[in-house]
UniProtKB/TrEMBL annotation:
Residues 255-388 form the GGDEF domain. The chain crosses the membrane at residues 12-30, 37-55, 67-85, 92-112, 124-143, 155-173, 193-215. GO terms for molecular function: diguanylate cyclase activity. The keyword Metal-binding does not apply. The lineage of its organism: Bacteria, Pseudomonadati, Pseudomonadota, Betaproteobacteria, Burkholderiales. Its EC number is 2.7.7.65. PROSITE patterns: GGDEF. It is an enzyme of class 2 (transferase). Keywords: Membrane, Transmembrane, Transmembrane helix. This is diguanylate cyclase. It catalyses: 2 GTP = 3',3'-c-di-GMP + 2 diphosphate. SMART domains: GGDEF (SM00267). It comes from Roseateles aquatilis. CDD domains: GGDEF (cd01949).
Length: 395
C-alpha cells in the first residue's frame, strides 16, 4: 500500500509506474509498425524517469553526484518526450536542439552551488524541462490540426502536456517565492506531497494521453483516406456532398451558403501536349493555389476530372465572387513549368448562392454549373454567376 503522506512511498510508486510504462512502450515499439521511433523515445523517457527517481537517494540507492545525475536524467527524459511528439506526426524531430540543451544545461549545473537547495540550479533545470514540455504540447496541437481537427479541439487534446509543463515549472516558482523553505522532493512537506501526487497522476495520464494521440492519428488518417481525393488531397465527391447537405440543413435555419464551381481550361490539350503526369501536376497546383484563399470552414472538393467545387458557408454571391476572382487571378499569375516547357494555367468559375426555395444543395450546384457553362462560352478564364431569379426565369 502507498502511504499517501510519505514522499519515499510516493517516489517508489512513481518508479514502478515509469518502469511499467517503459516496458509497455518497448513492446509497442517492437510489435507496432506505427511510429516505432516515437514509441522507442517514450520507452526511453519512462526508463530515464524511473532511473532519475532511483538515483535521487530517497530509496537508498546513492552514487557519487547522484543528485546531478538524477536531474540530468529527468531533463533527458523530457527531451525524449519532446522528440516523440513530432515523430508521431512523421515530422522532423529537433534532435540537435534537444541534445544541445541537455548537454549544455547538464554542464552548466555542474558549475553551480552543490546541494539540492541551489535556487539557480532549480530555476535553470526545471525551467528547461517545463519549456520542453510546453513545446511538445504545441507540437501535439499542430499535429492534430494538420490531421483535420479544429484549433480549439486540438488545444484541448494537447492540454495534458500543458499541465505537465506547468507542474514542472511549479518547482522553480516555489523556489523563487520561498527560497528559504525549498525542500528536495524526498523531504516531508505539504508542497512535496502535493507535487508527488500530481506527478503520479500525470505519469499515468501522460502515457495514456500519448497512446490516445497515436490512436487519434490512426483514426484521423483513416478518416482522411475516406474523405480525400488521393491525387490532390482535396475532399472527394462523397465527402463534399455530405458537407453540402449538412450546410443546406443549416440554410433551412437561416444560414446561407454559396458554391463556386471551377473547371481548368484546356485541360485535355494540356494532357495531350505535356502528358498525363503534367495534368496531374496541374491539378495539384490548382488546389495549392486555391487553399490559401479559403477559410478553415470552407471546403474544396474534386468532383471529377478537372472540375472542382468550393463550399463557402455563411457567404453570399458577392463574397463568393471575390473568392473566385482571387483564385482565378492567382492561378493565372502562377508559373507552371513541365520538363522545361511553360504552360499558362487558367480556370473558369461559376458561382451561385443558396435560397430558401432550394429543396436541396443539388439545385444550388445546378445553378453554379449553369454559370460555369456561361463562363466557358465567354472565352474561359472568367467568373460568372447565376442568380436564383435568373435560373427560375429559364425554367
Amino acid at each position: 500500500m502507498i502511504d499517501a503522506t510519505d514522499p519515499v512511498s510516493m517516489i517508489a510508486a512513481l518508479v514502478t509506474v515509469f518502469t511499467s510504462a517503459a516496458v509497455v512502450w518497448l513492446m509497442i515499439a517492437a510489435g507496432l509498425r506505427e511510429s516505432p521511433w516515437a514509441c522507442a523515445c517514450l520507452a526511453g523517457a519512462n526508463a530515464l524517469l524511473a532511473a532519475s527517481f532511483l538515483l535521487h537517494g530517497a530509496l537508498g540507492l546513492t552514487l557519487p553526484g547522484h543528485y546531478w545525475w538524477s536531474d540530468v536524467l529527468s531533463l533527458a527524459a523530457i527531451g525524449l518526450i519532446r522528440l516523440a511528439v513530432p515523430l508521431i506526426g512523421e515530422r522532423p524531430a529537433p534532435w540537435v536542439v534537444v541534445l544541445s540543451a541537455v548537454i549544455g544545461i547538464g554542464a552548466a549545473t555542474t558549475l553551480l552551488a552543490s546541494g539540492q537547495q541551489s535556487l539557480l540550479h532549480k530555476t535553470l533545470l526545471y525551467g528547461a524541462m517545463g519549456a520542453m514540455a510546453l513545446y511538445a504540447a504545441l507540437d501535439a496541437g499542430r499535429l492534430l490540426c494538420v490531421r483535420g481537427l479544429r484549433s480549439r479541439t486540438s488545444l484541448a487534446l494537447a492540454s495534458p502536456l500543458i499541465v505537465v509543463g506547468l507542474l514542472i515549472l511549479a518547482r522553480p516558482v516555489e523556489a523563487l517565492l520561498a527560497p528559504g523553505r525549498t525542500a528536495d522532493i524526498d523531504v516531508d512537506s505539504t508542497f512535496n506531497i502535493a507535487w508527488l501526487w500530481a506527478s503520479l497522476v500525470l505519469a499515468l495520464l501522460i502515457n495514456g494521453w500519448i497512446a490516445f494521440l497515436l490512436l487519434m492519428k490512426l483514426i484521423l488518417e483513416i478518416r482522411r483516406l475516406t474523405e480525400r481525393d488521393p491525387l490532390t488531397d482535396a475532399f472527394n465527391r462523397r465527402a463534399l456532398a455530405e458537407a453540402m447537405d449538412l450546410e443546406h440543413a443549416r440554410q433551412m435555419r437561416g444560414h446561407g451558403y454559396a458554391l463556386v464551381l471551377l473547371d481548368m481550361d484546356r485541360f485535355k490539350q494540356l494532357n495531350d501536349t505535356l502528358g498525363h503526369a503534367a495534368g496531374d501536376a496541374a491539378l495539384k497546383t490548382l488546389v495549392m493555389v486555391a487553399q490559401p484563399c479559403l477559410r478553415e470552414t470552407d471546403r474544396l472538393g474534386r468532383l471529377g476530372g478537372e472540375e472542382f467545387c468550393v463550399l463557402l458557408p455563411h457567404t453570399g454571391i458577392a463574397g463568393a465572387a471575390l473568392v473566385a476572382e482571387r483564385i482565378r487571378a492567382l492561378l493565372e499569375a502562377h508559373r507552371f513549368e513541365w520538363n522545361g516547357q511553360d504552360w499558362a494555367l487558367t480556370a473558369s468559375f461559376g458561382i451561385a448562392e443558396s435560397s430558401a426555395r432550394d429543396i436541396s444543395a443539388a439545385e444550388v450546384l445546378k445553378r453554379a454549373d449553369q454559370a460555369l457553362y456561361r463562363a466557358k462560352a465567354q472565352g474561359r478564364n472568367v467568373v460568372q454567376a447565376v442568380e436564383v431569379e435568373e435560373a427560375a426565369g429559364r425554367t
